[in-house]
Amino acid sequence: MKTKVTETYNTVVVELKGDVMGGPKTEEFSQMLHGFIEEKKTNVIVDLGNVKFMNSSGLGMLIAGLTTMRKAEGDLRICRADKRIESLLVVTKLITVFQHFKTLDEAVASYS
């Protein structure tokens, strides 16, 4: 999994690429989010548009990230999940936990 971070208006966008399978990348993701919190940047969007595969550890990483951001009085929202990942979210009922959007623009606008 690779990450690319950009800032758009009042949000931080974390684009994930490749396979999201937890492991050592989970700690890196957590440290990244804690860094955003230290910088007072608590509106985060995770762009899943370039994710090829996600397993339960990858879902756990996102859930932990959501919890981290909400404890900091922020939020973590997801966008551009393809049909496979969206069906994974439906089966695990996480579709009701995350605010998810079809496009990045919709996700950014949701923080307005």
Description:
The structure is a single chain. By secondary structure, this protein is of the alpha/beta class. It has one domain: STAS domain (Transcription Regulator spoIIAA), CATH 3.30.750.24. The protein contains 4 helices and 5 strands; from the N terminus they run E-E-H-E-H-E-H-E-H. It has helices at 24-38, 56-71, 83-91, 104-109, and strands at 2-8, 11-20, 43-54, 75-79, 100-101. It has a 5-stranded mixed beta sheet. Strand 1 and strand 2 (11-20) form a beta hairpin. Helix 1 (24-38) runs parallel beside helix 2 (56-71). The chain is globular.
Could you outline the blueprint of secondary structure elements for this entry?
Blueprint: E1 2-8, E2 11-20, H1 24-38, E3 43-54, H2 56-71, E4 75-79, H3 83-91, E5 100-101, H4 104-109
Parallel strand pairs: 2-3, 3-4, 4-5
Antiparallel strand pairs: 1-2
Helix pairs in contact: 1-2
Short description:
This protein has 112 residues and is α/β, with parallel strands linked by helices. 41% of the residues lie in helices and 32% in strands.
Determine the fraction of residues in helical runs and give it as a percent range.
40-55%
**Order of SSEs:** EEHEHEHEH
Helix and strand composition category: alpha/beta
In angstroms, what is the radius of gyration? 13 Å
Spatial ordering of strands, largest sheet: 1-2-3-4-5
Please tell me the overall pLDDT.
95
- Tell me, what's the shape? globular
Mind telling me the CATH superfamily name? STAS domain
- Beta-strand portion reads 25-35%
Using the 3D structure, state the CATH architecture.
2-Layer Sandwich
What's the number of structural domains?
1
Stretches with pLDDT under 50, minimum 5 residues: none
CATH class group: Alpha Beta
If you consult CATH, what is the topology?
Transcription Regulator spoIIAA
Number of continuous helical runs: 4
Oligomer: single chain
The total count of strands amounts to 5
Largest sheet: 5 strands, mixed
For the record, give the distance between the C-alpha atoms at the N and C termini, rounded to a whole number.
29 Å
